Amino acid sequence: MPLQQVVAAVEARLADGWTHCPVRGFDDNNGDTPDDGSAFLVVQYPVSMSDQITIGAPGSNVFREEGAFRLVLAMPRTVDGRLLALIWTDELARLFRGKQFGASDTFMGVTTYAPTSPAIEDDTDNGNYLLLSIAVPYQADLVG
User: Fold this and answer.
1) Tens of each residue's pLDDT in the chain, 144 residues
2) How many angstroms separate the CA atoms of 65 and 94, rounded?
3) Contact (Cβ atoms closer than 8 angstroms) between residue 17 and residue 95
């Protein structure tokens, strides 16, 4: 489970920089697809690990979380949907490639690295959507 600050920072970055389709974030429990069959993006947080990286300064130690979040783009299985799918995943990767964001007083922010190339889900030809996903590795430091 990621730090709350990581979720907030990632989803704020998406809210500020992604306009192509609705985003379903961590607290969106609506599992239904759009009635009109339009595209949507799902953010998942499948892996995170935390470790204490400094010692000896109670209240001022640094704790590091490392992990990856996954962006799953559901595109309509139409000619236009297929044409836009790779363009949009490239834009998502660019939004997070080698960035730092979300810092506050006790949270040093999220640092992201190289997103994976888009993977197409094995069963993507079943149903109405073409599913593409990218994973974005990150680290985040917290003072506490």
Assistant:
1) 888 999 999 999 999 999 999 999 888 766 677 888 899 999 999 999 999 998 887 888 899 999 999 999 999 988 888 889 999 999 999 999 999 999 888 889 999 999 999 998 766 566 788 999 999 999 999 888
2) 22
3) yes
Structure-token pair, residue 19: 């306009």
- Which residue's entry shows tokens 């994973």? 135
Q: Which two tokens stand for residue 45?
A: 């947080």
Q: How many CB atoms lie within 10 A of CB 114?
A: 11
Integer Cα distance of 52 and 63 in angstroms: 4
Q: Are 97 and 5 in contact (CB under 8 A)?
A: no
What is the Cα–Cα distance from 125 to 32, expressed in whole angstroms?
18
Q: Which residue has the tokens 């889900």?
A: 121
**Residue 82 region by backbone torsions, left for phi larger than 0, else alpha for psi between -120 and 50, else beta:** alpha
pTM of the model: 0.90
